[in-house]
Design goal:
Strand order of the largest sheet: 2-1-3-4
Number of helices: 7
Distance between the termini: 24 Å
Radius of gyration: 18 Å
CATH topology: Rossmann fold
CATH architecture: 3-Layer(aba) Sandwich
Length: 253
């Protein structure tokens, strides 16, 4: 069910256990070869495919939120970003609208790495505010972490993890809108993920890691890999939403 296509009485009549799904993405630089809207385009396609599955009739989907937290990309022109607290409060307010109207299951489906910390903190703060509501399920999921590793269903992948304007993202854009990919990706050099003092956390901005603005191996990308990745991620997100629909109130689900 699409929120934007319903009247308010129709929304009011829905069971209050209906999961309310907020897709959240970004508009930011994606290297010299990929469009600024990459994250929103890719999450939009994942969600389009999810909406073709049976779980879609059991969920209420808000429009995709294209503005994300992308301050770590601001050295690259064209990037649009909300500062961390502004973005966090935006997410809290979106969820609160439905909590005020009695809904009890909120799901952020994320398509941008920079959104992870803000959306998790937003959910954490909401739960503290509604700490006595045992009926609440406040969850978030980044689509490329939704299920098993994509190499299980996408043979030939070079990368072992999501990068930025990388093999995975470039493949999906080649499948979706190849005209938006600039130049011959086969000539784009790999930028390794690096160690970054792991397992500790290191704060960073993109120029610390990559002069061109991408991380990963775009030269290994193909439209065929992109199709396999879309199918894999959409199936995993749909399966997760089924878990939300079927949640029985326990901690062990």
């Amino acid at each position: 069910m699409e929120l934007g296509e319903l009247t308010w009485p129709a929304v009011a009549a829905l069971p209050k256990t209906t999961p309310v799904v907020f897709p959240i993405a970004a508009l930011e630089q994606h290297g010299r070869h990929m469009p600024l809207l990459t994250d929103s385009l890719l999450l939009g396609e994942v969600m389009r495919r999810v909406k073709l599955t049976p779980v879609a009739a059991k969920c209420l989907f808000a429009p995709l939120q294209w503005l994300g937290h992308s301050h770590h990309h601001l050295d690259f022109p064209g990037t649009l970003s909300a500062s961390p607290r502004v973005y966090l409060d935006l997410l809290k307010d979106l969820a609160t609208c439905f909590l005020v109207h009695g809904f009890s299951r909120i799901v952020f489906i994320n398509g941008h790495g920079g959104n992870v910390t803000p959306y998790q903190q937003a959910l954490f703060e909401l739960k503290q505010h509604y700490r006595d509501r045992r009926d609440l399920l406040l969850v978030g999921l980044t689509y490329w972490e939704a299920g098993t590793h994509p190499t299980d269903s996408c043979p030939g992948l070079v990368q072992t993890q999501m990068g930025h304007a990388c093999e995975w993202e470039t493949s999906m854009v080649l499948r979706l809108q190849p005209q938006l990919v600039v130049g011959d990706v086969a000539t784009v050099p790999e930028v390794p993920h690096g160690r970054a003092l792991a397992p500790g956390y290191r704060a960073w901005v993109m120029p610390d890691r990559s002069e061109p603005g991408h991380i990963g191996a775009p030269a290994a990308a193909s439209a065929a890999k992109g199709e396999a990745l879309f199918a894999h991620f959409a199936a995993a997100v749909a399966a997760y939403l089924e878990r939300v629909v079927n949640w029985d109130g326990s901690w062990d689900d």
